[in-house]
Structure formats: structure tokens, C-alpha cells
Amino acid sequence: MSQPLSAEQLLGAWRRMVTIREFEERLHREMPKGMIPGFTHLYSGQEAIAVGVCDTLDREDVIVSTHRGHGHCLAKGCEVKPMMQEIYGRAGGLCGGKGGSMHIADFSKGMLGANGIVGGGPPLATGAALAFRNLGNRRVSVGFGGDGSANQGTVFEAMNMAVVLKVPTLFVFENNGYSENTAAEYAIGARDLAERCAAFGMPAETGDGTDFFDVYARTRRAVERARNGEGPSSLVFTCTRFFGHFEGDPQKYRAADEVDTFRQTMDCLGKFRDRVTAEGWLQESALQQVHEDVLALIDAAVEEAMAAPLPDLATLTTDVYTTY
Amino acid sequence: MSTVTPIIMPRWGLEMTEGTLSAWHVDEGERVASGQVIMEIESEKIANEVESEVAGVLRKIVVAAGDTVEIGTLLGVIADEQTSDEVIAEFVRGYRPVTFTDDGESETVPAAPTPTATSTPVQTGSVGDSHASPTARRLASRLGLDLSTIRGSGRGGRISAEDVKAAAASAEQREGEGEGEGEEGESRPVSAGESVAATPTARRAARRLGVDLSVVRGTGRAGRISVEDVERAADTGSSRPAAPATAVAPTGGSAGDAYDVVKLTTMRKTIARRLVASKQTVPHFYLSVELGMDALLEARAGLRDQGAEVSVNDCLLKACALALQDVPEANVQFHGEVLHRFRTSDVAFAVATEGGLITPVVRDAERKSLLELAGEVRDLAERGRTGKLAAEEFQGGTLTLSNLGMYGVDAFAAVINPPQAAILAVGRSGERVIVRDGQPAIGRVMSATLSCDHRAIDGALGARWLQALRQRVETPGDWW
Amino acid sequence: MPVMSYREALTDAYRLAMRKDPRICILGEDVAGGAGASGQRNIGGIFGPWPDFLPEFGEQRMIDTPISESAIVGTAVGAALCGLRPVAEIMFSDFLGLCLDQIWNQAAKFRYMFGGQTSCPVVIRVNTGAGMSAGSQHSQTGYGMMTNIPGLKVVVPASPADVKGLVMTALEDPDPVIIFDHKSLFTDKGEVPEGEFYLPFGEAELVREGDDCTIVAISRMVKFSQKAADALEKDGISVDIVNPRTLSPLDEETILESVEHTGRLVVVDESNPRCSAATDIAALVASKGFSSLKAPIQLVTAPHTPPPFAPNLERAYLPGPKDIEAAVRRTLKS
To answer: Do C272 and C160 belong together in one domain?
Structure first.
């Protein structure tokens, strides 16, 4: 296979994937210390999907994310430090500490928000695409969801609406095998999720969510279709998550060795590293250097977040409305 | 940076409040590597090994194996060999556990705006480039404000009407205490939706108290004027637009001995409200004539001789009723977009009572005989004085007759009682030198002033009606 | 001033706004009607608010959707985040249950939880209210529930002029707005200003002035309160009637000032009483205007039952002028 992306693009993809991984691994270590308020859902293991999808998008394109949204944020270009501050509930966070892990947004980057409601986002993606269609600006939207959201009526409605209105959007389902504690195999009545998406009247295919190159290639085709006014598509990517549904989830529903096994066999970072070095597209040393830069950045981000000021109490009542 | 690292009871999940340290895997004084398992923790849901985050020596075990403690509790301390025991002991003594639990104690929120309509300030956004809603533009031009100096709070910094009002209010504040800034010397009619932002109840209060809203400073949302603002303006007299600040400067005298405070009765309040509304919203104009009274007074004397109790006022009322029939265009009420032109002459007359003025209406006055009419007037006036009139007895009519002749008043102009379109004010009948048949003679003459609502009655029409009235008054023989 | 029906005033407002602002589009079930069908295209909307909108504004702006409330509102909300000014039409306010998440957790929350990064200029128009024997699932109001949601503005027009001025304001407002158009008001007539006409949110109308009691009435109940006031006036009882026009923001000031003037309060709302707009207004006056009160507050509402079907039951369910009149008299007796 010829090199699908330039070395610079590949190194960028690596940087984003490693950033997500190390960001989440660090949060996993920080959570028990009690400085991070609320619920946190980590994205470790699924990095190739967020990065593979977002790397096909332009800055003006938009994504709508999920409760497991850190990966999507970082892949779409949100900065590490203000994200970390948001997760710590600090004034300097992307949302001034009023959103938190489940509601990080950065409209300047086309990141229309993580979403605490499973199935809440896809209708918004359809709407964003309607705006692009009516404004005639060739932008596209992506609605992320998991295997859990794939069973929500709101998502079915959003998919049907997108087909009826023929708007430029993508529905990306990350099937990590579990909706909370319940296996996707149990909860999805259809044999094949992609078949079900196709039944709404749009192209739908299943890809390997642990293979950056597979995600990238499939998404790119779907984005192209959307930009050309050919309407929505669905993509289903199989993957796994390395941590629980939320931080503190004892994961008793998973076999004792499942996560350890998957870390060996389904690690998208390992697969990427092996591929790019074997093909001679990138040098191991370059990858290592990026990895070290990322670790330093995350160390600094955590340190700064812990020392950062809390939101001013006066902001409790601001920004409920634009005008009062 | 301290090289002392605390080991704490971790929190695994939101529901975990305490954990049991089931075993230490290292002893006090033993070296540990980063990532080495150092202890086992059990919660209600999970048992797990805990690794050290740092390399160093486990200098101190604070919680013994087997103990159950709250999350966040200090379990042990890792540091290097060089750190003295005193430093370790000090660290343990001074350690404040991380607070995980929400004990329901809320933060003290400073006196911040609450998200309700009345008290939350307008949020400011980015500075707009005169990007404004049409209402904001209209308002700004009316208030003479430069849009480019106003911060927009709308989407994309768009300036809303509220922004303009807020800017106007803050500009007024900046002007300091100087009242009557800028605009008019004359009070403007105030109507809903006009440039002055006020609650409808404040508009009512302003009408009642005769306060010009355009010079009242509003303290409500976006500078909206409340009843309290109006009352304060009325108290301080700051509502009189023409008065310069020096003229109303208080001299420190107390009100106490200067006057008695007389609380308005409901009736007096109603009168005040209605008349202020009339003067503010009805464009009055005035036509004055002198009526020759000789014939009428003679005719009345004749009736009296027959023992009939008929007053001059009764006769005038009848004459008015007939004149309204003669000039039906003047027999109207004004109702916004339409006039109501009446077939019958319903004429009101003013009665002074202790509580104030009341104006009962004589219906179908043109068809009633003078005697009949006189009887009805007496009855209405009497019941008016004793407060026994029904509402419909003083509502309606197109014209009021107001007579102050008995008090020796020569002439005056009266305020229209809407929706009536006119009011006739008559003074006393007095002897004057008049010219009769080219010769000076003494005649009895009465002056009458007709106030007209210009929206319903033009000058020529009013004049025609007065001509008709003169005809009726001066030739009573035709209708007596 | 021209006289128009409520429906004509509503149509006039949206038409003027759409001519002015090309970003406005209307989405909903049958907003044009007849899409893909064998007969006539463009029915003009259910209850007829959109005659000739399809020919004038085209299919891009008059968007017929599937019966899919969650996606109708969700699509409108998403589009509002990306540069349009969509109007989502929900045929009956009872159907808000189908799209509550998109209103409650999405549109109304974005500005706050994203730290003021965005506003969400979406308008949701719903037909509301009882009086047509439409039964339990097509006759409820729901504005009480909506008023409970911070971040959402709630509009309850009571007259043709109201709907025109409030709709035009809503279509320039940066925040999510839900407008409850009462089905039984559509044929009511009244004077409506010509051309662009805006009524500010959070500013009540003092529909009628009096001295003895304040009636705060919502939507269609303003009309019923007028009738009650006419009857009361024959006995020399005069009332203030306050039409809040918007429940969120609520013009607390005017309500409190009116009660300060009259000393008595009757709140009239055809909704179910528990946790309703009526109890909210009563609580406002009880907590901030207690010293003005000369008598206990009276509430005139539907009973705490679903709206019934049979016309006689529905008449009994709905507050009427006589109920309002009686409530005012009760306040005057105590």
C-alpha cells in the first residue's frame, strides 16, 4: 500500500492519538485523588476513531460528541490545558468550569459539545447539516454515538430526518461492546448495526475501529459524499474501551482478563506504531519524541489545573440567557 | 516542591465513601519503586491493589492494615531518605484530607444577579459595529443616541432595544442629579409602547400623580420605571421637567408643620387620574362667546310665576340638548379609531360635592320638557351629593355643562371628560352695555367657553354649534 | 389600526420576519403539507398559519418533516447553533413529551453549560389549550413545565396584537423561545399594528384598570377575565387585569405593583394547578407582596385531572368567566 498520508499528517495523527491516550491514563490516575469533581468517562482504546474521523474534516466542519467525549475534543483541536481546567472545574476551563467532563465544547474548533444524554447529539448533527445545506457552504457535520445510543429513538429519528432532508452529515457509531454494564450483543436486537443504519436509506458500513487507516479511509469517502450533496452516511467502528463505563466502575461485568487481553490485541496506538514503522513512513525516534512532548504537556496541564482559580461565584447566574 | 508524597484512601466511584486497607505490601522504611504494588484496598464494590505513583521510601504508615477509613484519609507517606523525621511528622500532623463529600453546605454566593426578569442585568457581549435591530435603531434615533457607542448584547454583538434603553439609563445616571436633561419643557403624552420604559402600573401612577415619565429615572430591569420610581419622583418634585435643579434644591425645612397631608379618597384619585389623562391625551381648544340672556331670563321668570322650579342651568341644559340636535356632527364621543355619533342628546352637568366633582347625565334631554328636566336634574344632583348614583347614571353623554355662575365667576375654561368630545363652561349672567338697534342699551349677558376635543370637533364645527346654542338661548320662545 | 384575526396576525408576523431575515425557516409536520403526495402540494399548515408560504419561501425554508418531534426540534436546535434561525412547529403542546430532551437538556442548556460560548436562537411554536373536545392528549397546555426550565423563554400571547408583537420579538431573540398559541384564540379578532411591530419580553400588559382586585390571567383566560370584569363592573367592582405575555421572563414588577394597588389577587390559568404558572404567580405575590394583600389569593384553574373529552365535562374542566367573577367576589368578602 502506498503511503495514504504525508509524514507530517501521520505524525500529527500520532500526536493526537497519544495525547488522548495519555490524557485519559493520567485522569485515571488522578480521579482517585479526589480533586476532579463529578463523572468522568474515559476514551482510552478508541483513539483511532476520533482521530481517524476528525482528520478527514476541515476546521469549519462540526462534530457533536458524547459523554465519552475527551477523545473527540482533542481530535477536533481543543487544547489540552483549557480542557484539563474544565475537567477540574476551574475558571480557565473551556466552559469556565460550568460544563465539566461531560459538557466540554469549543465552538471555535467546530466542537459543538460533549453531551451527557445518550442519543442527545445526533439530532443536533442533522440540524447543523441542515444549516450547511441551506447556507450552501459545503461544510459537513458528524454525530458521534456509541453502541448504546444506537438503540435510542432520537438517533433513529435523526437518521431518518437526515435522509429525508438529504443533508451532509455522518453518523459514527463506536461499538466498544458495552452500554454501561450491558453487552452490545445483548442490547442490539439487530444482527448487524450497519444493516440497521442502511435500512434508513443511507450507505452504511462497518470498519475496524482499532485501525486508524481503516477509519480514515471509510470516513473520507463518506465525507466526500456528504460534501457533494449526496446525503448522509453511517459508519460503525468496532473497538473496545480500556476503562470502565465511568471512573470508579469496578467492571465486574467483564471477564477478569478481558481488558488485559484487549490491551494486547486491540491497541490502536500499537497497531499504528507497528504499521508506520514497518512501512518506513515514520521513524520510531520521531514517535518517541512526540510521546515525550505529550507527557510533558499533560504533566504541566494537570499541575496548572490544580493550581488554577475556581470559578467566581458570581458566574453561577450568568449566561443562562443571552438577553434577559 | 516537597518530596513528601501522601498515600490516601482513593475514591473509586461516586458512591464510595470509605474503604478498608486490607494489607500493606511494604513495611515502614522499605524502598518502593514507581508502579510497585504497595497495598490492597477494599470498598463495598471492589477490592484492588494499589501501586505507588512515585519512587522512594515508605517513611510512615499512618493507617494500619485492617482499618476502615473515609476516602481521602492519609494512609502513609512516601519520601526519600534525606527527609528528616521531623519533616515527615510535621507533614502528617498538618495533612488536611481532600474533601470529597458534599455536606450540603452551600457556598456563599455574593449579591449576584438572580435569573429573574426583574433583577438580572443585561449581559454584555462583544462590542458591535452598530449592528442593531430595527427597534434599537428607531429607539436610538428617538433618544438621540449614537449606536456606535452602545454595546450590543445580542447575537454577534447585535444591539437590541434593551441595550439602547440601558445605555440611555446609564447615560442619564452619568449626568448626575441634573434633572430635566436635554429634551422638552412640555410634558409629553404618554402611551403604552412609547419610548419611556415603564410598567403599566407605573404609567397609571404617573397619570394619577401628574408625573412626567420622561424625566423619571427607572430602577427596574434595563432602567424600566416602577411605581416606586414614580412616587419618589412625585415626592421630590423631580418630575417637573422645566424646573432647574437649583429651583428645587431643598432648603432643609421639614414638611411637618408646613402642611397637613390629606390622603386622597378613591373618588379624588379617580378624578385626578381621569383629568390628567384628559389633559395629557386630549388636544383641547377653546371657543368663547357671549350669550344674550334677556329673553331666556324673562321666560324663566314667567315659569316661576306659575310656581315652577326651573333654574337657569336647567334652561341652558335644554338649550345645549337642542343645539346638539341642530348640529348632530358635534353630538359625538371619541373612541380611538372611530367616533360614536349619538341620536339622542345625553347631556352631563357638573355637580360639586364634598368629595369632588361628579357629572350625572340627563338622557334624551332634547325630548324632555323643562319641568321634567328640572326635576330630573334635581334628583340626580341630590343623589350625586349623597353618593347614591349608579355607575351608568354618570357614564356616557357627549357634552358636559359646567356652571360656576352662582359663585360669581365671569368666565372659565373646563377640562373635557372623555370620551365626551366637549364641555361648556358658563359664568354668571351680568348686566352689560350692549348695542341694540344701533343704540347703547343695558342687557344681560353670559359668557360661555366651549372646550373641544380637536380629534372629534374642528374649530368651525365648534363654532357652528355655538351659533346654534346662541340661537336657542336667545330665542327661547321657539322651544319653551 | 387594521382588525385581524389571531391567525392572520400570526401569519403576518412570520411572513414579515421571513422576508426580512433569510435565515428563518420553518420545520414541522405538514407546515406546507402534501409533500410527496398524489394531490395538492401546500395545504398551508394545520390550523392554517402558513398560507402561500411555500410558493413565497420555497422548500428550503418551509420544510415538511416526518412525524418525528424529537428530530424536528433537535434539527432546529442544531441548525440554530450553525447559523440558521429555525422555527420548529409542534402541532400540539401535548407532543412536547416526545421532544423534551432537545428542549430541556439541549437547547436550554447550551449557553450555560458551555460557558456562554453560544446562544441558540430557535423558536418552537406549539398549538395549545382546551376547548375543542380534543381529549386528554391534544388539549393540555404545558407552559408551566416549560417555565420551569432556565434558559428557555416562554411566550403566551392572549390577543392578535400580542401574537404579532411577541412573534416578531421572538424571531430576533438570541435565546430559545417557545410560543404557545391557544387553539381557541385563532379566530378571535382585534386591532393589530401594521408593519413591523415588536412587544418586549418580560413586560406585562395592563389590559384593564380598576381598584378592587388584580386578575392575572394567562393566554385565553385574559378574554374570559374581561367578561368577568364586565359583569363585576355592574356592581361597581373594578379590577386590574394583568396579561403577563411572557411567563419567562415574568414581569414580576407589574404584578406586584398591581396587587399593591388593589390589595387582592386572582390568578387564572386553564392548566392543571400543581406546580403551575398560577401557583408560581401566587407564590411570587405571597413571598414578595404579602403586605399588600388584604385577602387570601384565589386561584382559578382546571382541576387536577387530564382534560376530558365530552363537551359538558370539558366546559366544567375549563375555568370560565363565572368562575373568575366568583373568585373576585370571594376575595372581596374576606
So the answer is: no
Domain presence at residue C200: no
* pLDDT 10s digits, B134-154: 656 767 877 878 888 887 776
Q: Is B454 an active-site residue? A: yes
User: For B36-63, what is each residue's pLDDT tens digit?
Assistant: 999 999 887 777 888 888 899 999 999 9
CB nearest C249 (choices: B117, B160, B226): B117
Does pLDDT of B32 surpass 80?
Answer: yes
> pLDDT of A34-74, one tens digit each?
899 999 999 999 999 999 999 999 999 999 999 999 999 99
d(CA A33, nearest CA chain B) in Å: 6
CA distance B181 to A51: 63
Looking at the structure, do residues C126 and C87 belong to the same domain, yes or no?
yes
B192 with C199: Cβ contact below 8 A: no
Whether B113 and A313 lie within 8 Å, measured CB to CB:
no
Nearest-Cα residue of chain A relative to residue C176: A321
Domain with residue C238: its CATH number is 3.40.50.920
Residues A91-118 have a mean pLDDT of 97
Total count of domains within chain C: 2
Quick check: is C74 in a domain? Answer: yes
Q: Which helix (H) or strand (E) holds C251?
A: none
Contacts of C287 (CB under 8 A, 6+ apart): none
**pLDDT tens digits along A236-258:** 999 999 999 999 888 889 998 99
C162 within a domain of the structure (yes/no): yes
Predicted TM-score (pTM) of this structure: 0.68
| B305 to A274, B389, B406, B430, B477: CA distances (angstroms) | 132, 32, 21, 22, 17
> Is there a contact between B56 and B78 (Cβ–Cβ < 8 Å)?
yes
Q: Which residues of C touch B (CB under 8 A)?
A: 1, 116, 119, 121, 150, 172, 174, 191, 196, 198-200, 202-206, 209, 211, 233-234, 236, 240, 242, 248-254, 257-258, 260-261
**Is C196 contained in some domain?**
no
Interface of A with C in 236-295 (CB under 8 A): none
- To the nearest whole angstrom, how far is the Cα of C213 from the nearest Cα of chain A? 29
Q: Are B71 and B4 in contact (CB under 8 A)?
A: no
Domain ranges, residue C283: 205-333
Contact A209, A239 (CB under 8 A): yes
Residue of B nearest to A39 (CA): B14
Asked if residue B255 has pLDDT above 50, the reply is no
Same domain, C44 and C128: yes
- Is C208 in contact with C227 (CB distance < 8 Å)? no
